[in-house]
Amino acid sequence: MEALAGAAGWLAANPLTFLGAVGDHLMLSLVGLGLGILVALPLGVAVAHRPRLAEAAIAGAGALRTIPSLAVLAALLPLLGVGFTPSVLALALLALPPVLVNTVTGLRGADRAALDAARGLGMGAVRRALQVELPLASPLVFAGLRIAAVQVVSAAALATFIGGGGLGDLVTQGLALLDTGRMLVGAVAIALLALATEAGFGLLERHLARRMGGA
Amino acid sequence: MIELRGLTKRWPGADRAAVDEVTLSVPEGTSCALIGPSGSGKTTTLRMVNRLVEPSGGSLRIAGEDALKQDPVRLRRGIGYVIQEVGLFPHRSVAENVATVPRLLGWADARIKARVEEVLTLTGLDPARFAARRPHQLSGGERQRVGVARALAGDPPVLLMDEPFGAVDPVVRGRLQEEVLRLLKTLRKTVLVVTHDLEEAVRLGDAVAVLRDGRMAQHAPAAEMLARPADGFVAEFLGSDRALKRLALLPAVAARREGRAEGEALPPGASLRDALAALLARGTKAVPLADGGVATLDAVAEAGAPMSAAAAGPAGSP
């Protein structure tokens, strides 16, 4: 109770600091996620129909996934220094595996007959990918995006360790200053943000599934 | 007109060609059924015509033009393509599916809309009821109709069909075959159809081509092939009841004799098979024909005999 009161007190006293941290957190997450998708999606499309490359990509993604987020952040520190950029790059690396794996799996599982018909009717490769393959793979691709988004939003809390800012700052500052209220505001906000991301993507996913009908 | 000359497909690493110097021509406005056991290369042959499979040798002309010199993607837009699994795009409505090729051809929206309604009607689907539906809301037969409508939408002179009615139940299949056959004849399309079902081949193909191990075993009008199989393989493939199957292709009037008989007359387009069936079912020696006269058991046997000159059908090999 006391801790909650402390949190409320801190929040009432520092609304701008809080909002700034939320903004930084969202910016880190969005840019990191966007960058990851920008790399993973085209890569997935490119390798999906080349069995050997696809396997290599999935194995690579699996390896990347097993490395803890904090280790990725720490490993980037000597290479890229501190601040926003290395944090965003680390988050992009985290977003990569789920998007890549789900894109490859989704594309490989897409209805063969529909693809054959698309080719046979005279659709070129790019049109096939955009108008048939990706829409058919979209439920899985979207599930990959959801996983990636939740991971990135959670992991963005660690950006504070390499000076990337965000809600993680409130937690580390709270710890350092023994300010439980500040720490709690940061922790709860991170958790809520992750839950909201999951729920939001879940809603979008259901909407998409309805639009796709029985596909 | 589809013209294959010495068309060959060799897959890398295979010890024999999948399709070995197949020569075949399908005259404009006619249909040819490609048939053969599995692995005989019939689907590969079909897929070389729209270059989903790139030929390793030989030449291919469609409507007089060298199809191997054209851009394959453009070539395919001028060739209708129907497959067993239909392959409708599940995320698109029936109308959008049918509009695929017209869109690729860059038609104006109004023209596309009119054409979609036109081909849906042609294939027996009421546009008002079906245009907005999704493929998963259709029955198997309706789906296959949409597949045919989609293939016809760009008004291609040539149509390729790979086991087009293989996935629908037998009752629907018979009706679909009948309707599509009539439609393609009316539209004067040149059709190459792959099937493993002999009855279907005989029903759909003006000519039938039997493939064996990638080579052409025989290519002839259906009635002629059933009467005179080129060799033991073709004879066995056609079955020991081939003379019976052939009766379905010959008109009942070929067995016409003067005379009168009791009972209902056969309908005008009846075949010798219908006449034989009526004779057996009624247990009589003669059944009346629509335009007068009767068909007798003896006359049916005579007209249906493979060597009968009267019943040789459209003579000559293509």
From TrEMBL, chain A:
Keyword Transmembrane attributed: yes
Protein name: Glycine/betaine ABC transporter
Topology relative to the membrane: Multi-pass membrane protein
Gene3D superfamilies linked to this entry: MetI-like (1.10.3720.10)
Annotated transmembrane regions: 30-49, 70-96, 183-204
Superkingdom field: Bacteria
Family of the protein in this entry: Belongs to the binding-protein-dependent transport system permease family.
PROSITE patterns referenced in this protein's UniProt entry, alphabetically: ABC_TM1
Main location: membrane
UniProt domain ABC transmembrane type-1: residue ranges: 22-201
One Pfam family matching this protein: BPD_transp_1
From TrEMBL, chain B:
Pfam families: ABC_tran
Domain of life: Bacteria
Keywords: ATP-binding, Nucleotide-binding, Transport
PROSITE patterns reported for this sequence: ABC_TRANSPORTER_1, ABC_TRANSPORTER_2
Record InterPro entries: AAA+_ATPase, ABC_transporter-like_ATP-bd, ABC_transporter-like_CS, P-loop_NTPase
Residue ranges occupied by any ABC transporter domain in the UniProt entry: 2-238
Family that this chain belongs to: Belongs to the ABC transporter superfamily.
Name of the protein in its database record: Glycine/betaine ABC transporter
Organism from which the protein derives: Paracraurococcus ruber
Lineage: Bacteria, Pseudomonadati, Pseudomonadota, Alphaproteobacteria, Acetobacterales
